[in-house]
Design brief:
With about 140 residues, the chain is an all-alpha fold. It has one domain. The protein is built from six helices and no strands.
């Protein structure tokens, strides 16, 4: 089988750079409007922190902050996403700390594919495998007693 070395064209680099600039401008505009109290911009900024748009790192605490600001003004989508985020964050923390029940819950959420937040880590199969591994280790430990 032949290896192909695809070189990025000047056009592709230019287009990627343009998209990056547009993303940065979008984040800057949303940030300014969010600080001015615009609920739609606050919801958008919450989303940007959820997915890590442009130069923003994924920061679920900042996301919750901005969703909360928008929700306090009655923004319905922000209310729903904030509720999802508040359910997701402690479960993910437990899952990362090797809690089998939480790992299983993460697997269920990911397999249902109804929540944008769950796509932030692994996939459903990974979480199910982690949960099974943890349960199997626990059973093995208990059976040797």
């Amino acid at each position: 089988m032949e290896d192909f070395d695809f070189e990025e064209s000047t056009w592709d680099r230019h287009e990627r750079e343009e998209w990056r600039r547009w993303d940065e401008q979008d984040v800057m505009m949303a940030t300014a409007k969010a600080h001015d109290g615009d609920a739609e911009a606050q919801n958008k900024l919450g989303y940007y922190y959820t997915v890590g748009k442009a130069d923003l790192e994924v920061d679920l605490k900042q996301a919750a902050y901005w969703y909360g600001k928008a929700a306090a003004q009655g923004h319905e989508a922000a209310k729903k996403t904030l509720a999802d985020l508040n359910a997701y964050m402690p479960v993910k923390e437990k899952a990362n700390a090797e809690d089998a029940d939480a790992q299983y819950q993460m697997g269920v959420w990911m397999s249902e594919d109804r929540n944008e937040l769950v796509g932030l880590s692994y996939n459903a199969a990974d979480w199910f495998l982690k949960a099974v591994d943890k349960v199997m280790k626990r059973r093995k430990k208990n059976s040797t007693k």
